[in-house]
Amino acid sequence: METQIVVRALAWTCASLLTFAAPTQAQTFDFPAGFRTQQIQTNGTTLHVRVGGTGSAVVLIHGYGDTGDMWVPLATALARDHTVIVPDLRGMGLSALATSGFTKKNQAEDIAGVLNALNIKRADVVGHDIGNMVAYAFAQAHQDRTSRLVIMDAPVPGIGPWEEVLKNPLLWHFRFGGPDMERLVAGRERIYLDRFWNEFSADPTQFPEAARRHYAALYAQPGRMHAGFLQFAAFDQDAIDNRASAALGRLKMPVLAIGGDHSFGSTMAFVMRFAADDVREVVIANSGHWLMEEQPQATVAAIRAFLDSDGALAQARLTSAEVDALAREGARAGTSGLSGVQTTVLSGNPNMPGPYAFEIRVPAHTRIAAHTHGDNRTALVVSGEWHFGYGAEADEAATRTLGPGGFYTEPADQPHFAFTRDLPAVVYITGQGPTDTAYVVAADAQANK
């Protein structure tokens, strides 16, 4: 019964296939300012690697039908407090041509060599598709160098119901390769790749035309399709290698298993629980296999929350202009919930364990009724006037007026309230998540909705 879950999850992709139309999304392949590219010699080959950002390291490993360029949205989100390393896999993208060494166990050593060249001892590792398989092999071989592992919407050879996965007709391309097949595809790379981009999407229009042209041109270069076929040809040996490594011990680091709801879905976590002790599950709504193209914002948010969830304080240095450029949302976790209040997360994730900081912007003539939070918080007034008080009833006469530079605390579970008058206010709040908000009078919470 359990093995049938994989087949049903993958079959859902075909059931959800829609008629292809003009794409509705723009796509950029420009990494953020400050990223550099390097050709790094490693394990008998040379990989094209993009490196940028500052802080703890994270490696992003692409799959088939993409190159490292797929990671631009995630690299942009992570670079402010992570050193982001984005290689093109052996023989693919802009890495050196290669005709051997495509077992995932060997390609894991390609990644290890990149980290060595960059003097990085330990990293979070994120993989998608074939990148999953390399990421898993790296985590097994280098548990001491892998802080956390993210696996996205593809099976891992030899792990869990692998033999059932191979029987699925949707995965015919796992056995497609060799000289005759390469000659059939030569000059028709876009036709071949469109088949995957269309059939493995919840809505093919969400895989942008610009991305299709970009990747088709890269895969049409000499030797690139050959390398892609060799990635699949190595699966039998990969299964042998993975079964052997899994027999030596399960993964101990936290693992995030992400599936598109029109593709692998919760089956991704089901598979990874055969090999890892600490598996968290995320299913991305309205997405097929191509998570970064179809639902980039939701996918980035899920990965960001996972990487921020261990209680470590990430490095962050933001100018006021950079803070102003960050995305703003309505009142969210740990805020009043009032309409009109805008929130910008500056560090961490208020919903998860660990330190966080966020900015709130409160319009003039706003009343925030008495409420509590479960964590201890401190706050600094940045601009405007903030009228803050303690107690179970919001009494403006009991507040103290705090201007720019004013400081106050919000002790855990102690009620407090605030007002603005003619001036709006901007306040920075820090705490130790997860945080929440509980109004003293339940009707106040309902009124804020």
Q: How would you describe what is shown here?
A:
The chain has 449 residues and is an alpha+beta fold. The protein folds into 2 domains: 2-307, Alpha/Beta hydrolase fold, catalytic domain (Rossmann fold, 3-Layer(aba) Sandwich), CATH 3.40.50.1820; 320-448, Jelly Rolls, CATH 2.60.120. The chain is built from 15 helices and 19 strands. The strands form 3 sheets. The chain has an 8-stranded mixed β-sheet, with helices on both faces. A 6-stranded antiparallel β-sheet has the order 9-10-11-18-13-16, with no helix packed on it. Helix 4 (130-141) packs parallel to helix 10 (235-247). The longest helix is centred in the N-terminal third of the chain and has 14 residues, at 2-15.
Give the count of helical stretches. 15
The residue ranges in which pLDDT falls below 50 over 5 or more consecutive positions are 1-26
Helix content: 25-40%
Mean pLDDT comes to 87
Kindly provide the radius of gyration, computed on alpha-carbon positions and rounded to a whole number of angstroms: 24 Å
- What is the CATH topology descriptor of the largest domain? Rossmann fold
Number of domains: 2
Q: Structural class, please?
A: alpha+beta
How is the quaternary structure best described? single chain
Largest sheet properties = 8 strands, mixed
Proportion of beta-strand residues: 15-25%
CATH class of the largest domain: Alpha Beta
What is the CATH superfamily label of the largest domain? Alpha/Beta hydrolase fold, catalytic domain
Q: Distance between termini?
A: 44 Å
| Shape verdict | elongated
Topology, number of strands: 19
**Assigned CATH architecture of the largest domain:** 3-Layer(aba) Sandwich
